């Protein structure tokens, strides 16, 4: 059975301004998602499943579902703040989605096979999808998952600070924990971020960064569901709290219920965190088109 690619496309893109998931960066109007799907098809994925908001349904149908007809199976689900466990109480003023763990959970009814998870507005590169697909097809341990990791220095923006999950990896190549590090800024010698005690934390740039490129199996829905119920019972009345994937997996990694392999990619990640990032993304795509990595027009 071919694996599925779950595309998290319900984010609001507040730092970028506007709907960055549908912003055009390719020479023929392609979005970053188009290149991820193109790479996923080449790598051997069998289905694309979008997690979206209802207000972009028509755009997703027009831009992806119709164009991909005959190329790969495509479907979508809605991430709504009302997709909650029965009986929980939440703030009636809540408008913000519940986070990336919740985004995976809303897709449970449509996934029965191993699956990858990506952000819609991140460019991961062809090698990364091949690594992910090979793991999902060949690894048979039901509670063993993976992260396709990147060198931290290959994930930074020239136009402002970013938040990154910095992975601590054991000698066996398994994840020990992820430290969600905020406001990381690029420097000439690496990167720097404010530490929890107010003192700066310095990075060489060779640290392993998680860019939300995950490999899961259907068994993950059990522990993600448990963690989300615990979260929502504690934080349901908050207006902005979210449950992200690294936070969800951390407890289960530490108590030995699951393992997560770190599989390194040599690709250079890029995305459009800020509008000033877009020219670099456009130039990078054009360069890869010239080099023959991608065709000038994704949809023929």
Structural class: alpha/beta
- For CATH, the homologous superfamily is named as Spore Coat Polysaccharide Biosynthesis Protein SpsA, Chain A
CATH class designation: Alpha Beta
Helix-strand sequence: EHEHEHEEHEEEEEEHHEEH
| Mean model confidence by pLDDT | 91
Helix residue percentage? 25-40%
| Rg, alpha carbons | 19 Å
Which architecture per CATH? Answer: Alpha-Beta Complex
**How many separate helices?**
7
Strand content: 25-35%
Looking at the structure, the CATH topology is Spore Coat Polysaccharide Biosynthesis Protein SpsA, Chain A
Choose one word for the global shape. globular
**Uncertain stretches:** 12-17
What is the distance, rounded to the nearest whole angstrom, between the alpha carbons of the first and last residues?
A: 27 Å
Q: How does the major sheet shape up?
A: 11 strands, mixed
**What's the number of structural domains?**
1
- What's the number of extended β-strand segments? 13
């Amino acid at each position: 059975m071919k694996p599925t690619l779950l595309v998290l496309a319900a984010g609001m893109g507040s730092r970028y301004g506007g709907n960055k998931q549908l912003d055009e960066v390719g020479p023929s109007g392609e979005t970053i998602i188009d290149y991820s799907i193109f790479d996923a098809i080449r790598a051997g994925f069998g289905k694309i499943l979008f997690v979206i908001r209802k207000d972009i349904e028509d755009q997703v149908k027009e831009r992806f579902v119709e164009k991909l007809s005959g190329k790969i199976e495509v479907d979508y689900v809605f991430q709504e703040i009302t997709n909650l466990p029965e009986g929980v109480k939440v703030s009636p003023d809540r408008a913000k989605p519940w986070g990336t763990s919740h985004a995976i959970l809303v897709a449970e009814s449509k996934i029965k096979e191993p699956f990858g998870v990506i952000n819609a507005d991140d460019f991961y590169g062809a090698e990364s999808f091949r690594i992910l697909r090979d793991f999902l097809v060949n690894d048979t341990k039901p509670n063993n998952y993976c992260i396709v990791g990147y060198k931290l220095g290959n994930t930074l923006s020239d136009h402002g600070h970013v938040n990154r999950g910095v992975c601590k990896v054991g000698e066996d190549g398994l994840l020990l924990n992820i430290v969600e590090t905020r406001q990381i800024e690029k420097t000439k010698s690496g990167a720097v971020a404010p530490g929890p005690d107010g003192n700066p934390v310095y990075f060489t740039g060779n640290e392993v960064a998680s860019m939300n490129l995950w490999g899961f199996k259907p068994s993950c829905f059990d522990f993600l569901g448990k963690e989300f119920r615990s979260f929502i019972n504690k934080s349901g009345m908050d207006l902005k709290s979210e449950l992200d994937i690294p936070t969800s997996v951390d407890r289960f990694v530490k108590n030995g219920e699951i393992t997560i392999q770190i599989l390194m990619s040599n690709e250079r990640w890029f995305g459009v965190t800020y509008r000033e990032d877009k020219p670099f993304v456009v130039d990078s795509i054009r360069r890869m088109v010239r080099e023959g990595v991608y065709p000038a027009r994704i949809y023929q």
